[in-house]
Design goal:
Length: 495
């Protein structure tokens, strides 16, 4: 007869679940408030969401690095803490954008904010575990909430975007489950650290089967990170989603995906399984280069930013492929700098939105729309130029330092060719970023009397854009302290 297993609250260490529970309880609380009192102003839900995210951030920062909890499926290491901080800070920047418009009705629904908090909890589960099942639960929780948030925009393009994202996401989920099943079959465990131990003890004997498992995992994460050739959904989904949600999608789901990729591929790279590194190398180079070439021929600024975010994801995946502590630290530095810049750039598109497509039949944000912006909205033009120069990696703007540290990590790890390819891609990307600056500063305004900017530049939107611009500039002077802090967390995780 089997002995019953005794479980005490102490051994469960439920404090490791606290941040996710705060977000989930916050989402449920918003739904309860709506049940009790209907038609409350959205400002209440915005403030409640920000309060929940602040408390969540406090819980994350207060956690003990190195803890495990809840039957050892939760892992609070340096990667979990720093990635959750990035997720929560980006979320706190995004939520106030709900105050910017009366026209976008989705922000008046309490369900929007509840789903948003559930999505944040899902991303937190993804990064705070090395258990393949819990990572999958977090992935699907976040994805299902995000599909609905996109569809709530309630335009034909938004419905199309949500359906495309849902179908691709379902395919990626299938790939992930197949990969996880193969890892389990090889090792008898779904814990990544145990999988690494079993494979190492066996001398990586079943290399062919392992290759198949890695291929499935790479395809699944390739969809989430929009790596080429799994990127085809990205420009269409970003175009269909609201500008601010597209900016959020370009940052937060990807940081969660990067952490999962680092955990899954990290032990194989550290064990020097050469073909894993080779496959990642090819994926990184193709993603960076092809996305940049596609961005060059775009007529719409939003689609250009979508392709550019794919290229930036390629840069960051290069850090995972290199696999050194310096590279993994550069990954987080790069993405923190990218967070403020890219979210600000997408928010600027919101300033220039217009109900009717008066510039182009097909696109909402063609380059012509920004013609002569310097004479209509000079401060906005200067801020948008700041974001573009930063994304291009022009020195001394913030993302230059992110690119510099990733390339430095590549050189130090003897990937000279990769560093040269990165430098060439940075030079290519400068063209399409500078193209927008040319339109804003050197072209005459086209069919634009300025009302489109004046009506849409509400105070909350101005505040968020101004804050993003300030952080983009401030980050230039805080690169070294940030890098030291990030490196300490990464080293504490053994990466």
């Amino acid at each position: 007869m089997l002995e019953p297993i005794s479980v005490s609250l102490e051994t469960l260490n439920l404090s490791t679940l606290a941040p996710m529970l705060i977000a989930i309880v916050g989402g449920l609380g918003i739904l309860v408030v709506d049940l009790i009192k209907k038609d409350l102003d959205k400002t209440l839900y915005v403030m409640l969401s920000i309060l929940v995210l602040f408390v969540d951030l406090g819980a994350v920062i207060g956690q003990q690095v190195g803890d495990r909890g809840f039957f050892d499926v939760m892992l609070i290491d340096g990667l979990a803490v720093i990635s959750q901080v990035v997720i929560l800070v980006a979320s706190m920047l995004f939520v106030p954008l709900a105050l910017t418009s009366k026209r976008f009705h989705e922000f008046s629904y309490p369900e929007f904010f509840a789903l948003f908090l559930f999505m944040v909890a899902g991303f937190q589960f993804m990064v705070a575990s090395d258990n393949l099942i819990l990572i999958f639960v977090g992935l699907e929780t976040a994805s299902l909430a995000l599909y609905t948030l996109i569809a709530l925009h309630n335009r034909d393009k938004a419905f199309e975007a949500a359906i495309k994202y849902f179908v691709m996401g379902a395919l990626a989920a299938g790939f992930y489950v197949m990969g996880a099943m193969i890892f389990y079959a090889l090792s008898g465990s779904v814990e990544l650290y145990k999988i690494a131990e079993v494979l190492k003890a066996g001398g990586y004997a079943n290399m062919t089967i392992l290759l198949v498992g890695v291929a499935f995992m790479m395809a699944a994460l390739g969809f989430k990170l929009s790596m080429v050739p799994f990127h085809t959904w990205t420009p269409d989904v970003y175009e269909g989603a609201s500008a601010s949600l597209a900016g959020y999608m370009s940052v937060v789901p990807k940081i969660a995906g990067f952490v999962v990729a680092m955990r899954i591929f990290g032990f194989l790279i550290q064990a020097d399984v050469v073909w894993v590194r080779d496959i990642l190398y090819a994926a990184v180079v193709i993603t960076m280069t092809l996305a940049n070439i596609m961005a060059l021929v775009q007529h719409d600024v939003k689609r250009m930013l979508a392709f550019s975010s794919i290229s930036h994801a390629g840069f960051v995946m290069a850090a995972i492929m290199i696999g050194t502590t310096q590279a993994n630290s550069a990954l987080f530095l790069y993405w923190i700098l990218f967070l403020f810049t890219n979210l600000g750039a997408f928010a600027m598109l919101w300033v220039s939105r217009h109900k009717a497509s008066i510039w182009h039949e097909r696109y909402d944000h063609p380059y012509e729309k920004f013609s002569g912006m310097i004479s209509i909205m000079p401060v906005g033009a200067v801020i948008m130029a700041l974001f573009m120069l930063s994304l291009a990696g022009v020195p001394p703007f913030s993302l230059f330092w992110g690119k510099l540290y990733v390339m430095s990590a590549a050189v130090n790890a003897d990937y000279i060719g990769l560093a040269i390819i990165m430098a060439i891609n940075s030079a290519i990307s400068a063209y399409y970023y500078l193209k927008l600056i040319v339109y804003m500063f050197l072209r005459a305004p086209e069919q634009n009397d300025g009302t489109v900017y004046v009506q849409n530049a509400s105070k909350p939107l101005q505040t968020i854009i101004g804050f993003s611009a300030f952080l983009t500039v401030f980050a230039i002077f805080a690169v070294d302290p940030m890098l030291q802090m990030i490196t300490a967390y990464v080293q504490a995780s053994g990466f």
